[in-house]
Sequence to fold (231 residues):
Amino acid sequence: MSEPVRANERIAYFNGRYVPEREVVVPFRDRSFKYGDAVFDMTRTFDGRPFRLKEHVDRLYRSLRYLRIDPGLSPKEMIGVSEEVLERNLHLLGEGEDYWLGQRVSRGVDAVGDEGWEHTGPNVIVECTPLPLRQRARQFRDGVDIIVPPIRRTSPDALSPRAKMHNYLNLLTADMAAKASDPEAWSILLDVNGNLSEGTGSNIFLVHDGVISTPREQFVLPGVSRRTVMD
Fold:
């Protein structure tokens, strides 16, 4: 039986149930932990309303198809679950605060067969995380310092950048290299051809002589905010 929900704790969706975040526990044999074998997507809210939720969920399902994972929910159901999770957490937002709203789906547990796991199929989680607006206040005010590290973005011949997967080590090692030079810097990686591609959670645009340029989708995650800028 679940513990009583406290009024000051966030609620998440976990395999068909809405539970306190502290009850969302994934087995150590889950393939997302072992191999990064999972996908996710993430949007933010503005004044408590999710930004282009359908487009983000559509991208989630493109990622799921790429990894051949069936979450057991339709896109419409995933949107409904996401809206319900957000609704259950809105009362925790203070003035001027907003959420990340994310969906995460792993392939599930690599079960030997004798462990007695109650659930061995895909693990499905929908959750809210407060946006780090205070921590990023300087960046909003002064801009973001960018470093291009020597680490290149994974080639699309090896792994599609168009799928948003839990395996982020390529981007994380690039971030570590950048922050070794400047702890406040963000990394933007070059692709295998030496052209600018993307960073962790960021697409890039350049403006020069009145022309806006951005990397081709063959080499980057097609961000929903990126499409908004292009539209």
